[in-house]
Amino acid sequence: MYDVVIIGAGVSGCAVARELSRYEVKAVVLEKALDVCEGTSKANSGIVHAGYDASPGSLKAKLNVEGSRKMEVLSRELDFPYKRNGSLVLCFDEKDREKLEELKRRGEANGVEGLCILNREQLLEKEPDVGEEAVAALYAPSGAIVCPFGLTIALAENAAVNGVEFRFGTKVSGIEKQEYGYLIHTAKADYETRMVINGAGVHADEIHNMVSRIKMKITPRKGEYLLYDKKAGNLTSHTLFQLPTILGKGILATPTVHGNLLLGPTALDILEKDGTDTSREGLEQIVEKASLSIRHIPKKDVITSFAGLRAHITEYAYGQENAAGAKGDFVIGEIPDAPGFIDVAGIESPGLTSAPAIGEYVAGMVKKLLGLKEKSGFISQRKGIPNMALLPDEERHKLIRQNPAYGNVICRCEMVTEGEILDAIRRPLGAVTTDGIKRRTRAGMGRCQAGFCNPKVVEILAGELGKDESSIRKSGEDSWYILPPREGGNL
């Protein structure tokens, strides 16, 4: 029997797993996909929000600010890309200056430090290419950017090294309450556990509704994005927000930690929980609105578009409003009619920022309920994959002397080597798909979007995993590159 089963290997689930691995606990993460970071966590803005947006007194505000403060130290411990670049909330009408003042007051009430309002001249000093209609901005020096894949993978690897088990391709089909806890059914096996952590993203309502009479409904909120080549990455050094609306923070423009320019997201509530298609209308909307923030956005430098889904709770009779009266708050806590079952649901923006604090918060609840004791020998440090493109010459040459595979470039756009790809496969929770390689090494994330390197990546994966190339997937079970032979040898 397990002490804890965590459902979902997104950033929240992996953060909880990492924090629980500090204790003497038998825990497992069940993930229906073939890798971590396959849902909401893989398709977002990569922003570390300062914390001025959430309502004071809400759980979202508390965990946002705490997570933001923890992120830089965590990035050094677990070796994932992070950069404190500061953020600006742009105002385009003199009549809206009071809204900036309100955001500033809200941020200060939440404990955000260093907030100030800039006039047009001060704004231009920080961002010379800012849109001509921007008249003022709220400046948050603690705003930052992070690699969402790097963060999630690092949390998962560190949790695994410290004893947490991970089961991929394992979809939960049912949950039964038992005298001792819960029995979780999957197609591969059943899992007995004392406690359950529900971190299933847009599917968290389905998991919740398996055990509770208090029903929850999550409506996926689709956000489309445009990613630009690194040639456009210097159009802004800060993250540029626009004054928020009822649907969120609007279209943002931000550099990424890898040097690209990212624009988006849109906000559209949809029915399909796998509806990550992009649309002409959505992408045109991004360019139109982002042009308010940055002048002369180069359309020809778009290298890809994508969409992500945010887990927006639209129905829940319990917990929709916290003590501060804030609607749309995170739903984190033990279900009243299901003792030992903890929801981590409705984790939309700023969920990525809040993840380190969410992990600590939920692990603290589990520690109290189960009486967990800290383990000796917890490994807090994790070393990531060497980035050959960024290493100093001396370190690069040293690695190549140790292993010539680090001198064999596979992805020319991002200068990713065979050694890095092999490391991505061989390390804890190693990659088994080409998307897994991409998120760990950036092979295929450059201008050609894997047009040249992908066949070689498939070949390396097949060789390392001892499989035929026809069995290698892009991400999910049905994402084939090569159709397997049918009986009789014909396709």
Description:
The protein is built from 12 helices and 22 strands. Helices cover 29% and strands 23% of the residues. The strands form 5 sheets. Strands 1, 2, 9, 10, 11, 12, 19 and 20 form an 8-stranded mixed β-sheet that branches. The chain has 3 domains: 2-49 and 149-218 and 314-370, FAD/NAD(P)-binding domain, CATH 3.50.50; 83-143 and 219-311, D-Amino Acid Oxidase, subunit A, domain 2 (D-Amino Acid Oxidase, Chain A, domain 2); 393-471, Arc Repressor Mutant, subunit A (Orthogonal Bundle). It is an alpha+beta fold. Residues 320-326 have low confidence and may be disordered. The chain has helices at residues 11-20, 59-78, 97-110, 120-126, 148-161, 204-209, 280-290, 351-370, 393-402, 418-426, 434-441, 454-465, and strands at 2-7, 27-30, 47-48, 82-83, 87-91, 116-119, 136-140, 144-146, 165-167, 172-177, 182-186, 190-198, 216-228, 239-242, 252-255, 261-264, 268-269, 302-316, 331-335, 338-345, 409-411, 416-417.
List strands and helices in order, with pairings:
Elements: E1 2-7, H1 11-20, E2 27-30, E3 47-48, H2 59-78, E4 82-83, E5 87-91, H3 97-110, E6 116-119, H4 120-126, E7 136-140, E8 144-146, H5 148-161, E9 165-167, E10 172-177, E11 182-186, E12 190-198, H6 204-209, E13 216-228, E14 239-242, E15 252-255, E16 261-264, E17 268-269, H7 280-290, E18 302-316, E19 331-335, E20 338-345, H8 351-370, H9 393-402, E21 409-411, E22 416-417, H10 418-426, H11 434-441, H12 454-465
Parallel strand pairs: 1-2, 1-12, 2-9, 5-14, 12-20
Antiparallel strand pairs: 3-8, 4-8, 5-7, 6-7, 10-11, 11-12, 13-16, 13-17, 13-18, 15-16, 19-20, 21-22
Helix pairs in contact: 1-5, 1-8, 2-8, 10-11, 10-12
